[in-house]
Amino acid sequence: MAQSPPRNIRRLKYIEAFSAVIMTGSISAAARQLNLSQPAVSQLIGNLEKSVGAPLFVRRNGAIFPTHRAEAMHDDARDLLALIDRIEMHLKPRSDKLLSHIRIAATVSFMSEILPPLLAEVHKHHPKGSYSVTSHPVDEMTNAVAEGHVDFAFHTRPLQHANIVNLLQCEVPQVCILRADHPLAQQQRIELAQIDGYDVIWPSRRDPYFQYYRDLFSRNRLNSRNVLQSPYANFTIRMSGVLNALSFNNALMASIVCRSDDTLTWRPVDGIDARTKFYLSFPEVLSGTETQLLVQNSFTAVTAEAVSHLAWLNSDQAQ
User: Fold this and answer.
1) Statement: residue 8 has pLDDT above 70
2) Helix or strand or coil: residue 5?
3) Where are the beta strands (DSSP E) in 33-123?
4) What's the whole-number mean pLDDT along residues 271-278?
5) Mean pLDDT score of the chain, rounded to an integer?
6) DSSP 158
7) How far from the centroid of its chain's Cα atoms is residue 244's Cα?
8) pLDDT of residue 88
9) What percent of the chain has pLDDT over 70?
10) DSSP assignment, residue 149?
11) Residue 223, SS3?
12) pTM for the complete prediction?
């Protein structure tokens, strides 16, 4: 006959102990994280295993490893603890407590180029934190933030919802990316008419910039062969080198990608006046919290060098 779960098993302390052991990899480290004694954590885990009627951890040579069942349970446990954090923030607005688990949504190119150093910066100041990262189209991203499934979102458009705060992180011009040995790379600035006749890479049809560039090329009667269309900024930038074609993207992403690939460079184009805005979006309840400020400041820190390289371009355009 199956043992009835002890009434206390439903209490949060068991879930906290379980999650801490998985995240830290040991009973002793979990005890330090929870400010409990090692025997107390061992007892909590033991009672939890009795309640589910199966071992959740395998002890081997002094180490502890989660079973498949424990790994399956962990996502739910982590989500529950994250929900508790958010309930506390509703009850105590502008709490100084950092979220233990931070959920971020971003565009694919942002995730590939900017998010890794950004999370490294966040983790440097919040070493006990854990993270989950997803990518959504802008409509799904709006719903995910508004419904509490995502804490922070990075996008190039504000998320339109009454309970979402959109902070403009930076604004940069659209530029031309090309191979460093391309004839046009010999100039500091490119005239729009000089693009005529060269192969080009355009954004996908769903991208707002597709219509912008199509109208621009048509209005100026530029005859350029479109060799590729893609919605992914970092991919199209790198394909400029592979296809020896001109691509057009925001200067921040261009600067970051070209710094890691010396075969590529970028140039401003006289006649292209489009600008790209980068937003950090989050639910209103996180506004002003230590977590929000940490994520915001981390973006500034990891993009500071690239943004400083664009200062001369912004000043030229202002004149």
Assistant:
1) no
2) coil
3) 57-60, 63-66, 101-106
4) 93
5) 86
6) -
7) 30
8) 66
9) 89
10) S
11) coil
12) 0.70
Residue type, 1: M
pLDDT tens readout for residues 15-49? 888 888 888 888 888 888 788 898 888 888 888 88
Cα–Cα dist 245/224, whole Å: 10
3-class state of residue 250 by DSSP: strand
* Exposure string for 171-196, b = 16+ CB within 10 A, e = fewer: ebbbbbbbbeebebbeeeebebebbe
Asked if 224 and 198 touch (Cβ cutoff 8 Å), the reply is yes
- Identify the three-state secondary structure at position 269: strand
Joined together, the tokens standing for residue 79 give: 């989500």
Contact 122, 129 (CB under 8 A): yes
Query: For 121, how many CA atoms within 13 A lie in the half-sphere containing its CB?
Result: 18
Determine contact, residues 196/224, Cβ cutoff 8 Å: yes
Residue with tokens 């995910």: 144
Q: What is the dihedral of CA 166, 172, 175, 179, to 10 degrees?
A: -100
Q: Which two tokens stand for residue 101?
A: 């688990």
